[in-house]
Each structure stands twice: as C-alpha cells, then as structure tokens.
Amino acid sequence: MAGDELLASIFKYASIAVAAALGLYATLLWCLTMPTFQSHVVYLHAFQMTWFKDLNVPETFGFLRNQVTPFSIETPDRVQLYAWHILPIELYRKHERSLNAEPTGFVSDITSRLAFQLLRDDPEARLIIHLHGAGGTVGSGYRVPNYRALSAGQPEKIHVLTFDYRGFGRSAGTPCESGLIRDALSVVDWAIKVAGIPPSRILIFGQSMGTAVSIAVSQHFALQSPPVVFAGTVLVAPFIDVATLVSTYRVAGTIPILSPLARFPRLFQYLQRYIKDTWRTKDRIAEYVRTNERNGEKYRLTIIHAEDDYDIPWHHTEMVFWYAVNATTPVGISYDALEQKKLDSKLNLGAAGSVMEWTTDHGVIREEILKTGLHDVVMGYPIVTMAVMRSLEAADPSFTH
Ligand SMILES: *[C@@H]1O[C@H](CO)[C@@H](O)[C@H](O)[C@H]1NC(C)=O
After folding, report:
1. Would you state the pLDDT for residue 399?
2. Does residue 37 belong to any structural domain of this protein?
3. Do 240 and 258 form a contact (C-beta atoms < 8 A)?
C-alpha cells in the first residue's frame, strides 16, 4: 500500500511539474509575440559582455596605445553610433612614435588624428566595414581576434571600421531591422564621404546577425543608379531568414526554444506572423546577384560556415548559397542539381573542409565549409584573412604585388 501511495504522489507532483513547465513555455511564447521582448531575443543587445571594461580604453581589449580610435558617426535620423577605427599592425609600427604622442580616449573630431589621416591619405589603403553579430559590443569575445585576421594579409594597408548598432553598447536608440540597415548605410557613407575611400577599396564583412545587415547593405548599393559594388562581401555563419533561424536556433547550442514548435507547421506558420524583423537574406542575396548580373557589374561573394556551428547550423549556408547561385541564371537551378554539381566540382580539403566556387561572366560566389570553427571562433581563423585577400586581389590585382 505504501508503495502505491508513493507512486501516486510521484505521479501527482510530476504532472504538476509538467503542467508548470508547459505553462511557462506558453508564457514565453506569448512574450515572444510582443515586439520589445522579441527584439531583445533577436538582437540580445542588453547583453554587453564587456560590462567591466571601458570601450574608450581599447588597450584593455589588447590593443596598442592609439591603435584604435573610438569616435562616433551620426545617422540621418540623428542616432550617434559608437565606432572604432582600427589600424593594421605594420602601419602602426611605422608610425608608433607619433601615435604614442597623441592623447588617448574618445575623439570628437577624428579628422584631426594621425590614424584617420593614414587611412584617408593613402590611395592604396583598403577599408573593411565590419558588421558584428547579435549581443555584445565592438570589444566582445572573438571580435578582437577577428579584426586581426581581417587585416593580417596586408598589415600595412587594411584598416578595419567597426561600430555598435543602435541600442548596442554605447550607441543610442533601440534596434530594429530598418534601423540597423540605416546604421550600416551611414557608416558606409562616412567611409566614402569623410574618409574618401571609394567602394572599390571597401569590403563588407559580417558575422551571424551581421551577415543579414551586410547583404542588405550590399543590395542597397547595387540597386543605386549608377550601381555601387564593393570589392567584396564576406559572410561568416549567415542564416536564411529569422523564421527559419528560430526553428533551428538553440540557446548556447543546446536548448531548443522554438524548434519543438516547428513540428507543428500550421501553428508555426501562425506564429511567424508575429515576427517583426524578418531579415530575409535569401531574397536579398538573390536580388543582389540578379542586379549585378543584369548590370554587368563585377561582384564577389564569400560565404563561410563551420560544420560544428551549434548556434546557426551550417545548412543555412548551403541554402543561402543556393539562392545566390540560382539567381545567376534566367532559368534557375534546383537545390538537388546544385548538390550534384558540388559532388562533381567542389574542392575537398580533408580536415580543412571543402570549397565550392560558382563563377559567372561577372561574379564569383564561393562557399567554404569548415569542419571545425564553431560559431565565433572561426572569425579569427586564417580562412577569414584569405577570403579578404582573395576579394581584394580580384577587385584590383595590383594590390597583392
Ligand atoms: C530560382 O530562379 C528562378 C528563375 O529566376 C526563379 O523563378 C525561382 O523562384 C528561384 N528559386 C528560388 C528558390 O529562389
């Protein structure tokens, strides 16, 4: 009898626990339909991750004195974006004494600084506009080794410009899709107009959420009349769109939040209507490619993803690549036909992964799948350096001589 009673009470408490968990889950879903809560989940901008450090003291993030110039760029809707201009190491070495002699900290007139003048006055300088992922700031996590990898191929010439989107770090405002795109456009505008760097010497680099902003910006400029195309666009760990992302996303690579719902397509489709910022990279990349093909503009797209990326599964890159390749031909190509072509012509690099390059008369679309590199660690890898150098060389062969 005692055994039965025990069993019964275990049963009772277990069902209370299950009901409570379901209740919490339903509450979470309900919260997710609210725009403010949703934007916190999508952008994670409340998580600065550099709480105990001052971004205006870049030395505490491992930089040399005045290697980084903290300053701000204003958007047309008057948001002050917090930005870092990062000097490549060999250029720094050549000007070490003069750089050391300047005051440190936030700069209100960046044009008065030597670092800025070294960028503006060198006709061979290249500029990487860096669009970071969700959460954190310009100084968080693997972003710092990322900046080093970006300029490692030509450390006398390749500068990096990175910034926090509205609502992130020290930048004012609250994030939203149109706002983030406007932020990135303002930064590109600053690079062209204030720093005087033509688009042919600018490369757009984005990781994770930043890839969605990168392709939106590339597309925006390609659609201008006359069209504006950059030296290259490099995307690390992109995603197809937010709806597909949430159906596969796992917090810290382990806890699936919405993927259980993806098993109920109708419910999932219904909930999709509540997604405010959709970030449709698949459509934007297709339009970007189609526009350049139509205009006969030279373009270069590189998409990089690691197979052990648990935050955004690498299948997203295969799909994004397909959408891009499909847009190169008037009749298109099916996913399976492209997979077959990959089997025939992709470059197999063993433990280093594989590379598939799709070349047209005007453009190159390159997919690089790494075996390892996780979601962010890959940003500091030499594969990033190579992607940058390949793009810059293709845009101007004299750059690597
Ligand atoms: C592929 O391209 C064709 C032709 O442009 C288009 O009709 C089709 O919608 C594209 N497919 C995808 C999945 O984008």
Report:
1. 95
2. no
3. no
Whether residues 268 and 311 fall in one domain: yes
283 CA closest ligand 1 atom index? 14
The parent domain of residue 310 ranges over: 43-400
Atom of ligand 1 nearest to the CA of 332: 2
Residue with CA closest to ligand 1 atom 14 = 323
How much distance in Å is there from the Cα of 35 to the middle of ligand 1?
Answer: 32
In angstroms, what is the span from residue 327 Cα to ligand 1's centroid? 7
- Which whole number is the average pLDDT over 112-141? 96
Asked if residue 38 belongs to a domain, the reply is no
Residue 364 within any structural domain of the chain = yes
Residues 16 and 102 in one domain: no
pLDDT-based confidence at 252, cuts 50/70/90? low
**292 C-alpha to ligand 1 centroid (Å):** 16
Residue 158: other Cβ atoms inside 10 A: 27
Q: Which atom of ligand 1 is nearest to the CA of 290?
A: 5
How far, in Å, from the CA of 258 to the mean position of ligand 1? Answer: 28
Could you tell me if 101 and 23 lie in one domain?
A: no
* Residue showing tokens 């990898």: 149
21 and 124 in a single domain? The answer is no
Residue 269: pLDDT over 90: no
Q: Residue 287: helix, strand or coil by DSSP?
A: helix
Ligand 1 lining (C-beta closer than 6 Å) = 286, 323, 326, 331-332
Q: Are 396 and 200 spatial neighbours (Cβ–Cβ below 8 Å)?
A: yes
Amino acid at 29: L
Q: Are residues 177 and 316 in the same domain?
A: yes
Statement to judge: residues 18 and 48 lie in one domain: no
Q: DSSP H helical segments within 223-303, as ranges?
A: 242-248, 265-272, 281-295
Tell me the whole-structure pTM to 2 decimals: 0.93
Residue at 21 is within a domain: yes
- Residue 128 sits in the same domain as residue 11: no
Residue whose CB lies within 8 A of the most ligand 1 atoms, among 241, 290, 326, 328, for a mutation test: 326
Task: Identify the bridge partners of residue 65 per DSSP, sorted by sequence position.
Answer: none
288 Cα: distance to centroid of ligand 1 (angstroms): 14
Q: How far is the CA of 217 from the centre of ligand 1 (A)?
A: 22
Count of structural domains, the chain: 2
Give the separation between CA 68 and CA 87, rounded to whole angstroms: 6
